[in-house]
Each structure stands twice: as structure tokens, then as C-alpha cells.
């Protein structure tokens, strides 16, 4: 197992290298010029050239790439060409809202969706099952921004329970933190409930028809033990996979949710950087997102082993 | 992982669980229901864009200009009659030969780091601004030397008399001649200044700055405001709140909800379609603060066929009717006006010379005639169409259709604004990524005279603005304007410039429009001006 983990980590290195090169080249091939954004509308072409020169944007591509990679190996992600702030500082400032939203969403989703999926499978074909499926279809079908606006309209504007927008770090107090993160969490949770509940239900349905479940029931085991110990545990692999990928998706940016609730997260940072052609920021954020996917996939694989003893990595 | 479920008793447990969850949610909601009240002394404003570049001399971005007005001060400033008034200057004299200006600074002016403002600081600041700004560059052409004479006297020696010295120093929009400490002003004008130290009414709160999220300013306790009533950027800049926070909200609907819920105090540029909702709320003030508004323009590229032919450029301009553009772009006639004045309607230099077809919509026959006269061969006109900016995505479509209606072939190329900004700098032929035309918008104060209006620059490919018309007569007229001695003379020259510019088809205003701001009714003292100002506002 340890060897497998080391092997996976080593395998991630060329993946990250390829991502770095790909992102770098794609950005340079994309039309647009950060110097023009810095200089503003009234800048003359001569002024633009001078700013490009000062930013090093006139250097040959391979020099720019080598400089960037060299700095990366020294832990230096560079400086935003637009704001002049260190990229690592910009990303760090945006991590808390995004990670907070990811954690609260996934935790709430799992707490609600897994039981719902189990119940739906257990009561397959009944009104309960159809109700769970209805929620799933709605969660998938209704765009997140619509749910967000409805939440704001009801809970913020009508009932005045929650603020319309904004984020408070957990350091400002748990109450303030939860108060601000609640609505975006509820909004995203609907989507993830739909996703996780469906996967749970489908997996459970497959398992519940297996011989060993019938055997367990024939032995007289309580239904709770049949479902929890024998069925749910055996269908946990796809559920864990979906949860992991869902978490990575949120971390790598949920721009719409962040925009609707004015959360200063990584998604907005990415969009702003792309629109401003802020190359160092875009490169760093995409590399970070790739790293997150690699790590989460690795954690999912490790979780497989823990949850299903039949799975072995050599 | 184990779940706390007894599935045999699930319905009951679910019910209980749900009840518990509901109860928990209610408890949580009750515990946290009272949001942290915004301090009565903190004014929260949603701006039109994010503040990214902090150096208002390095860039012409309006957010950077607005930031500059918060932390820097100016020697002179325009009042609401567009007359320059002293701001940092206490008194000034001009020698009889018009070659020496002596400006005595007001007593007690100091920077945010506590150091006094000196003539040397002023000289270095004006020199840096003069490297970047068009009007400043013209001023510098006339300046022999600058320096201080005693700590608080700034002296400017001219090579020859120049009539627009004070007007230049009172320039209200990008780039504004802000005064900063000499050590910052000595930063090369192609690099950002390393610190935000000014002598303006607010100080910069660096530790709370998050680009794209929030910018924070605190009242500068040692600021010495003038005694006069505030008027535009002139007069006393009395700060009546402790802090001002500029926050970025990427979603207009969220901003609307936030201001109606009282979470923000001020919204600089609400979209026109939301104005009726804001006005109907009864708890918000909605008013246009910038009487000059914005000028939306079409700019042909004079370098490449077929638009290297002035007749073709004129034909394109003649095909357009401003009302069609503005109806599509703004919709509400209360928020726009038909205006063919290149130097903006409502200014002393406004004139309708040469603009009849734009404001009357009767130029289609003329356009066809011009196309025939020019021998237009059907070469497609490449119009760059930015689809990601609400205030810029409509005009190209309307103009393209108007041009097609009179016989143009038009290639409307969709792109994002930043792609356009990069591509418009290219002087390459069309086949190599060049372009024939684009549209953009200007704040009125950035185009309100021939020196600040980049589009009537006739320097061509070397020194001109994007589009690069090579019209020496325009440059002669601009220089005549710079050295003119009276308003009447300036008006006469400006009218001539406009006539030549239309005749050469260098550009066309395709409408003037206004963007009201909205604020909560507990704010008092919101000022009119060419830029949003945050002094004089109190929050009750």
C-alpha cells in the first residue's frame, strides 16, 4: 500500500509538469494583453510596449516558461501582473471561503443524501422512493443560480433570517461564519443531495438483490444491520467516489454560487484572473486545481482499500 | 462509517430527526439572526468594477482614478461650472510675461506618513504625470523647468506662454495630476508606485485590501479641508465617516438585494433595467451624479483598406442614427441624449458641427453616395464585438446593421473585451489579425476638450491613438487650442477640430448616456462630479 502511494505521488509529477506546460502555452496563445489592462483605455501603443517590457512579457516564451518553472521549484508562484500582489497571498486569501463552502456542502449533503438514498432503495417503488427521486431530479434540473435567488428571496428578503451576501471567516466567530455560509451551502447542497442520493440508491438497489443479503435476512439479522453493515458498506465505493469528485469540483471553483452569494472564493479569483489575463494567477490556480484532483483521487483510492478489503494495490 | 439510524423505526426516527434538525436550524438561525450591524461610520459601496491597479498615473482605469481621489489630492480641481479652483494651492501668481508660475501651497498639508507636502513633491508628481497623460505631455512640452522655492512654493517656468496651465493641473479624469511624495513620484511611470501614501482625505488600509474583493479607506485625521463648500472635486473635502469600504459584487441581482436589505449603502452603477426596481423601493435615492455622463463612440481604423479611405469612414458614420444605438443600448430616453458634440454636450466646447446625420438619422442616402464615390468594392469591414461587457455588446450589432443597410459588407467578430483590448493595439493588416472598427465608451470628462480627447489626435501610426488617423491639420489645431487665450477662441478652434474630424471620419460619438447611482436614504451629502467622491457624505 505504501509503495502504491509513493508510486502514485511520483506519477503525479509528470502530470503536473504537463499541466504546467499546457496551461502556460494555452494562455500565451490566447488573445489579450495584461499590459493593455494595466495601462487602461487611453494608453498609446508606445506606453503599452513600455509596460510589456517592464512586465517581461516581451521576453521569448521559453525564457518566460523557464523563469516561471524555476521560481515554482523555489516555492515562488510569482506576482500578479495586475495587482502586484504575490500570487500565493491572493490564493491563500481565497482558500477559506472555498474550502468552507466545500466542507459544509459535502458534510450536509452526505448527512442528508446517504440516508435518503438508502431509504429510497429500501422502500423501492413506494411513494418515499418517488419522493427522493423527485428531489434528485429537481436538484439536477434547477440551475444553481435559480435556487440561490429563491433562497435569498425567501430566507433573506422575506424572512430576514440570513444575510443576502458575503463571507465571514471562522475567526470572526462561529455564529457569524455559519450565518453567512448557510445559504450558499443549502443552495449547493440540493445539487449534491441529488447526486449522492441517486448514486446511493442505485448502488443499494444492486446490492439488496444479492444472495448474501437474502442470506443475511434469512439468518434473522435485524434489518438495520442488513442495510448498514452488509448493504451500505458494500456499495460505499461509488458513493465515496462521487463525494470525492464533488468535493474537488467545489474546491476548483463554483463560480455561479460564489457570484450569487458574493463569496470571495477561488472560482471568482480564477474568472477575474482569466478576464484580466493575469497569467501568473491563472497558472497557479489551475496548477492548484490539478493538484487537488490528484490528491483527492489518491485519497479516494486509499479509501477504497479501507472500505472494501477485496481491493488490493500492488 | 456508521450512521445513527435505526432503519426499522425509520419513519419515526426520521420525523424526530427532522424535528431535531429543524429545531437545530431554528436555534442556529435565532442565535445568528442578528447580523453584525454595519458601523454607523462605515460606508459600504459597490463600485462599477474591481480595483486592481493602485497607481492612478500608471493606468487610466477609472477605478484607479477613483482610488486616487480617495488618497491623493490635487493642486487644482474643477467645480460644477467646470472652472478650475485651487485645492492644495493657497494662492498663485503668473509673471507678466506669462513664463513663471508660482504656486503657494496651503498651510498644514501633510502626507499620510506625517511628512509635509513640499514643492519638490509637487514637481516630481507633475513630472511623472506629464510622462503618462496626454494633456500632461502637452503641458510638459511648454515647461522649461519645475522645482520648489522654499518648502511650500512650487515654481513652474515655461518656455513660452501656455494658456492651459491651470486647466491642465485641474484635469478631472484619467490621468488626474495627483500629488504624491517625491520618493514615490520618482518611480518610473511604467512601474507601479510601491506605497499608497498621499495627502488626500482618506488613508489606504493596505492590510484589508483584497484585489477583486474589497478595498478599504480610513479617514485621514490630519487632513486639512478647504473652507469652501464642496463642488465637484473642488472645495472642502470634509470626511464625515470613519471608513469607506469598496466591495465588489459580480452579480447585479445580488447587489440589488443587498442594497434593499441595507447590507450596502451605495451602488455606483446599477444597470438601467434595475433602476425602476430601485426607484420603486421608496427607501433609496437614485440620481445621476455625473452630468457629463458617458460618450459611446465608433472608431474606424485608418490604416487598412477599405477604411484607409476617408470617404468610406464617413459613409460608415453617416449610416448610423444615434437613437437606434441608444434605444438598443439604454432603452430609457431619460437616460440618454442624442449628441453629436465630440467634446460632449453640456460643456463650453459643445457644438453640433458636422453631426447632423448622427442625430437626425438622415444619412443613409449620403452614405450610399459616399460609398459609390469611393468605389467601395465590397471588402468586408471587420468590427470587433465584445460580448462580455454589458455596455459595449449592443453598439456593434446596431452599427453593423446600419452599415449593411447602406451597402457595406460587415464581418462582426465576437470576442471578449480583453481580446479586443489586445487586438486593437495591432497595426497589422486585417488578414494578420488587424481590424477595421471597434466601439467603446468614455467618461465625459475624458473627452471634453481637444487635448484630453484621444480620438481627435491626428498623429497617425506614430503617437496616435488606436485607429491612427494621420491628419496633420488636427495636430495644428490642437496646438492652436493649447495656446489659445480666451474661451471664445477655444470654442472656435474646437468647432474647427470637430469639423475636420468628421470630415476625415476619424471617429463618431454614437450617443451620450447617463448612469445614475443609488444609495440608501440614510446617506446625506452625496456629491455630483465627473467621478464618484466619498467626502462630504454622512451616514445617519
From TrEMBL, chain A:
CDD domains: TM_PBP2. It is a multi-pass membrane protein. It holds the Pfam family BPD_transp_1. It is found in: Cell membrane. Residues 95-300 form the ABC transmembrane type-1 domain. Keywords: Cell membrane, Membrane, Transmembrane, Transmembrane helix, Transport. The chain crosses the membrane at residues 9-27, 99-119, 131-157, 177-197, 237-261, 281-307. One of its GO terms (cellular component) is plasma membrane. One of its GO terms (biological process) is transmembrane transport. Belongs to the binding-protein-dependent transport system permease family. This is ABC transporter permease. It comes from Aquicoccus porphyridii. The lineage of its organism: Bacteria, Pseudomonadati, Pseudomonadota, Alphaproteobacteria, Rhodobacterales.
